[in-house]
Design brief:
The protein is of the alpha/beta class and 419 residues long. It has 2 domains: 284 residues, Zn peptidases (Aminopeptidase, 3-Layer(aba) Sandwich), CATH 3.40.630; 131 residues, 2-Layer Sandwich (Alpha-Beta Plaits). Helices cover 34% and strands 22% of the residues. The strands form 4 sheets. A 6-stranded mixed sheet has the order 1-2-6-3-7-15. α1 crosses α4 and α4 packs across α10. The two termini are 15 Å apart. The chain binds zinc ion.
Length: 419
């Protein structure tokens, strides 16, 4: 039977897959600042050409981060032959976060040990790119005729918001409802789970404004850091208990992330710590906050409850002066669990691993927001090899058996969706 031949075909390509993953891992596409993108886009593009794709390199013209020193280059391939619809698009980002400390391997050495490939970006998410390319290649080598179309893209900057990557492609119509039916983003959400979407993000900055005075007579001034302290206390004692009461129907993993959350990312105030200190009351303090919100929370309410706390404080303390600034808003997204893409991918995972995959949502955001909110494609999921908890960690790795299983599941899903 044809499907078991496809699974065997994928398995027979294990060595090729490992070598390609190692080739990609050895290109340190570190973001920030966005190094070696051209080289990595070309490595993916060359492989797609070899596997009979028409390949385009797309520079993110118009984006300020697309510079001569760090060009933002995305690559898209379209498999030759087949029809126009349905169109299945596999997307993976090839930028990686900096290696950081604590490694027992060369982070860009792509060492293979104990059935694992080690290196920064193996799990997140060059293994995902590898799996989808070889999944489709297995269909081609088996001579499967496709009624629809398959595209693969390797994109930049997911780790910094994806604006020159998937957002740029969606904005320019490369990933869009009028041509694209299904999008599978190959993020490392674990080989045995299918991810339907992610929570929302509201980043904001609060500045508190004081009045400078001599440090020996602080009662003559207004200390902006004290005012920020009061705001932090209000977050702790008023907002957090209220957030803890709320719970989403989204299947977010881990379950602790089914509540909304707020994190203080940074705080600074008064004089720079390393500068010469003078005896002054701090007249300025600012802090950046990361509020993660649920499908059930309208953004107007999320922002409104911060404003209300600040306004209340200004109303009860006439020396409390502040500025609130929005830094970034990412809406939550969730693909329908009953959609063709979700049921087909789940069945494929079940057929490969022998167990139905849990349908989950991600606590953090990834490029799905751009596909759904800008491209207006309503069937988009994340599925890939690689363990979520290893992303951004030292000694990141991808298990080779997971790489193979994920490619097998993608191959079955691709055949059933467009075959
Ligand atoms: Zn990622």
């Amino acid at each position: 039977m044809r499907e078991s031949e496809i699974l065997r075909r994928v398995e027979s390509m294990t060595q090729e897959m490992v070598e390609f993953l190692r080739e990609l891992t050895r290109i340190p596409t570190v973001n920030p600042p966005g190094e070696n993108y051209v080289q990595c886009a070309q490595a993916i593009g060359r492989r797609l050409s070899d596997f009979d794709y028409d390949v385009q390199y797309l520079e993110a013209e118009g984006r300020p981060e697309h510079t001569p020193a760090h060009p933002r280059v995305n690559v898209i391939g379209r498999l030759r032959g087949g029809g126009a619809r349905p169109l299945l698009h596999f997307n993976g980002h090839f930028d990686v976060v900096p290696a950081g400390g604590g490694w027992s391997f060369d982070p860009f050495g792509a060492e293979v040990r104990d059935g694992k490939v080690f290196g920064r970006g193996t799990a997140d998410q060059k293994a995902g790119i590898t799996a989808s390319i070889f999944a489709v290649e297995a269909l081609r080598r088996e001579g499967v005729a496709l009624a629809g179309a398959i595209e693969q893209s390797g994109t930049v900057d997911e780790e910094s918001g994806g604006f020159a990557g998937v957002a740029w492609l969606a904005e320019r119509g490369y990933i869009a409802r009028d041509r694209t039916d299904y999008v599978i983003i190959t993020e490392p959400l674990n080989v045995d789970r299918v991810c339907l979407g992610h929570r929302g993000v509201y980043w904001f900055k609060v500045a508190t404004l004081g009045r400078i005075a001599h440090g020996s007579m602080p009662f003559l001034g207004v200390n902006a850091i004290d005012k920020m302290g009061a705001f932090l206390a209000a977050i702790e004692h008023e907002l957090r208990p209220s957030l803890a009461q709320r719970i989403t129907a989204m299947p977010v993993e881990p379950p602790g992330a089914r509540h909304p959350s707020i994190n203080v990312n940074s705080i600074s105030g008064g004089q720079p710590e390393n500068g010469m200190q003078t005896p002054c009351v701090a007249d300025h303090c600012e802090a950046v906050f990361d509020r993660r919100y649920l499908m059930e929370e309208p953004i107007a309410n999320v922002r409104g409850e911060i404003e209300r706390i600040l306004e209340h404080m200004a109303g009860t303390d006439r020396e409390f002066r502040y500025r609130l600034e929005d830094l970034m808003t990412v809406p939550p997204v969730l693909t329908d669990a009953g959609s063709t893409l979700v049921t087909t991918m789940s069945q494929a995972v079940n057929d490969v691993l022998g167990a139905a995959p849990p349908l989950i949502a991600s606590p953090g955001t990834y490029d799905q927001k751009h596909v759904m909110r800008m491209g207006l494609v309503d069937q988009c999921i994340a599925y890939g090899p690689g363990l979520l908890h290893l992303a951004h960690q030292p000694d990141e790795y991808c298990r080779i058996d997971h790489l193979v299983s994920a490619a097998q599941a993608m191959a079955l899903a691709a055949m059933r969706l467009v075959g």
